[in-house]
Amino acid sequence: MSDLLSLNPALAQQLGVADGDLSSKQATDALKKLSLEDIMTGLAANGKNAKDMASYKFWQTQPVPKFGEKAEIEEGPFKIVDLEKVPKEPGPLVDGFEWVTMDLTNDEEIKEVFDLLYGHYVEDNEAMFRFNYSVSFLRWALLSPGWSKEWHVGVRASASRKLVAFISAVPIALRVRNKVLHASEVNFLCIHKKLRSKRLAPVLIKEITRRCYLQKIWQAIYTAGVVLPTPVSTTRYYHRSLDWQKLNDVGFSPLPHGSKPQYQILKYKLPNNTATKGLRPMEEKDVDAVLDLLQKYLQRFDMAPVFTREEVVHWLLYKKDSPDEQVAWSYVVEDPTTKTITDFFSFYCIESSVINSKHTSIRAAYLYYYATTVALQPHTQAQLKERLNSLVNDALILAKKLKFDVFNALTLMDNALFLEQQKFGAGDGQLHYYLYNYKANPIAGGVDHMNRVDEKGCSGIGVVML
Ligand SMILES: CCCCCCCCCCCCCC(=O)SCCNC(=O)CCNC(=O)[C@H](O)C(C)(C)COP(=O)(O)OP(=O)(O)OC[C@H]1O[C@@H](n2cnc3c(N)ncnc32)[C@H](O)[C@@H]1OP(=O)(O)O
After folding, report:
1. What is this protein's function per UniProt (predicted)?
2. Ligand 1: does its nearest atom lie under 6 Å from the Cβ of 141?
């Protein structure tokens, strides 16, 4: 991960140009030849991950699109599942291991999931950082409205009882263009490092699928940094330094050639106070207004959740009497004259462990949902851009005050309108969006032919995955 804009080396190689030689006419011509589908689904930009369909031994057996399947298809499920034929028991595991359903309301069991993820979850390519989702975060993410214990699936070593693998799902009403799917959102797939490359992941995926089918859930949404058959969309990570010096110390933000640390610190300096009149933390009394605003705003995107009131309360409102530490922060703008809620934004916290550094962790804020009434009335893109820039600038100021080191965002929703102006730098990472058992035409991920933020097209993705 870095905040430097660079041409992915795999793509450069694929195009036959020197790494980073973005200006060369050769690169531009070659990029133009790539199919829109490849660009939208990230296959062009992420050649290092892409394999032939035939080499995806597991995924080629699953109800997901094959690479290169043509666009403009009629959207719908790949198959209709016969509930009668869904096995009532889990598939076999290798000797010495057994299935468990985790009880995440039990402090010890959620701590076991935390420990597994803490030691073995997603790392960057150079193994410098590893996501460190807190116990409070896991409770927030996995005990959301409608959660089911059956969807918190673990594997234990029979002798030691140690938890060695995990996969989870929570329910989501997901609108894909004009159809609403009652689907599951699959996340936190993790296998102990000592059990890697033993084909356990397909076994876990088949088990969570079986458990979803048993609850008559036939579709799922999931995201991954790796290319699998076949992304419906690909978004790119952007990072905005809040504490440049610390990010530099840990190797996240290198000093750009020809710059000096003090210039970088100055570049990312923020005002002490927010600028939007009427901005304040979201409260219980704002729930209905936020729900209404968010539902309308999310109509702008091809794929977005359909939130209920209960979900807005769960995902966005921090209850001060909660025993959990705060993981999400939400703010509203209340018009001082009309007292109506005109805008809102939110972000959540994930720390990352820093492997081998004097700093042990980085505190990252991730942009979550937001909405503004500017988009709901007749408006120009410049007006929307201006409003989003002021809101996000305030979000950065608040995050800085809350001692976050970096503010991360993807190129989804309308983020393309503010990322560069707010000094977010393009990261190396991409996040691919996938649908299980649902054919859908590609959705714009907010990056253009050059894998740069696409201000004109923006993105059709309105789902933020944790
Ligand atoms: C209707 C309901 C449906 C519900 C299900 C919907 C689908 C949900 C899908 C899951 C959504 C999860 C969303 C998240 O949580 S994304 C986060 C994933 N977790 C991590 O990256 C944590 C660190 N890594 C690990 O723990 C392991 O490396 C994992 C577990 C990722 C793979 O373990 P391992 O390295 O030991 O490999 P293997 O030998 O067992 O298995 C190899 C097979 O697994 C395929 N593979 C590798 N990585 C992923 C991946 N991230 N999604 C899907 N498939 C993946 C791979 O292409 C190969 O298949 P194929 O190439 O031969 O075909």
Report:
1. Adds a myristoyl group to the N-terminal glycine residue of certain cellular proteins.
2. no
